[in-house]
Amino acid sequence: MARLSAARYGKDNVRVYKVHKDEKTGQQSVTEMTVCCLLEGEIDTSYTQADNSVIVATDSIKNTIYIKAKEHPVNPPELYASILGQHFLDKYAHISAAHIDVTVHRWTRMVIDGQPHPHSFLRDGQETRNVEATVTRDGITIKSGIVGLQVLKSTGSAFHGFVRDEFTTLKETWDRILSTDVDAGWTWKKCANLAAVQDGVERFDAAWEAARNITLKTFAEDESASVQNTMYKMCEQILDAVPETEKTNYSLPNKHYFEVDLSWHKGLQNTGKDAEVYAPQSGPNGLIKCEVSRS
Ligand SMILES: O=c1[nH]c(=O)c2[nH]c(=O)[nH]c2[nH]1
Q1: Closest CA to ligand 1's atom 8
Q2: Domains 1-137 and 149-189+201-294 are alike in CATH topology
Q3: Which terminus of the chain is more solvent-facing, meaning fewer CB atoms within 10 Å of its CB: N or C?
Q4: Whose CA is nearest to atom 7 of ligand 1?
Q5: CATH superfamily of the 149-189+201-294 domain
Q6: Residue 58 is assigned to a ligand binding site
Q7: Is CATH 3.10.270.10 what the domain over 1-137 is classified as, yes or no?
Q8: Is the pTM of this model over 0.95?
Q9: Cross-strand partners of 185
């Protein structure tokens, strides 16, 4: 016997752009995001009995994403995701959960001749601001984050004292390059309803800015003993800075840069204290993850 033990469906990769035109100043602001919206509920018969009467078509879900972006603010993304998810619960009695993922892409205002340009923007990096909201009739859980923020420090990182045995070839180092693509998240205490998300809505932008600043400052200033220890310090500070969060997490690849021994060529010294030219590695890479909660 088979049993449908989990099911959700919806539209993924819905790309949305919204412009805000300030009539007074003539300044325009833009937001570009990619949205995924998946629904759960009493939809089992659509899988098990070909009963399409319980299906809100994924095409209609896509339309709803655009309509809600028109009717409501898309910033902060935590609010837009909550509004969008709440719509599906309010509209369809048989839907019990809406899972909304929003990925916001960077469009940073250009500065031309020292002045912020009123309507021109540049993509300054692949970094995105990410939100995962799960809306149910019991409340709204939101996880916010940063993905794809690429950073490198050319010194101020060590790695020694690790297990040495018959499997070990890595040398200990007191000075190495540290580089990663930051994937950071912070999970908010559950909101009872949409009004609770809206109440003090500025906390979402403030938390994103704090988390980003903490990440960069700690990465730059920490005399890193390991990726593990540096990311833990970041997590602790985010929990301190954003009291409405219950846990925080990082997932950091350790992007290796190998020294190149060039001594075979006319005795060129390029290792240890003489290292200047390195070979960046595309893989394999370390991958270090953690989640830190309030005790
Ligand atoms: O910061 C690090 N953590 C590790 O677990 C590890 N493992 C490794 O080979 N290099 C590093 N660096």
Answers
A1: 286
A2: yes
A3: N
A4: 286
A5: Urate Oxidase; (3.10.270.10)
A6: yes
A7: yes
A8: yes
A9: 145, 249
ipTM of the complex: 0.99
Write the pLDDT tens digit of every residue in 204-249. 999 999 999 999 999 999 999 999 999 999 999 999 999 999 999 9
pLDDT tens track for 262-280: 999 999 999 999 999 999 9
Residues acting as catalytic residues = 11, 58, 256
121 is in an annotated binding site: no
Residue 227 CA to ligand 1 center (angstroms) comes to: 7
Query: Is 159 marked as binding a ligand?
Result: yes
User: Which atom of ligand 1 is least distant from the CA of 170?
Assistant: 9
pLDDT tens-place string over residues 52-103: 999 999 999 999 999 999 999 999 999 999 999 999 999 999 999 999 999 9
Of 157, 288, 290, which is best to mutate to test ligand 1, by the most ligand atoms within 8 angstroms of its C-beta? 288
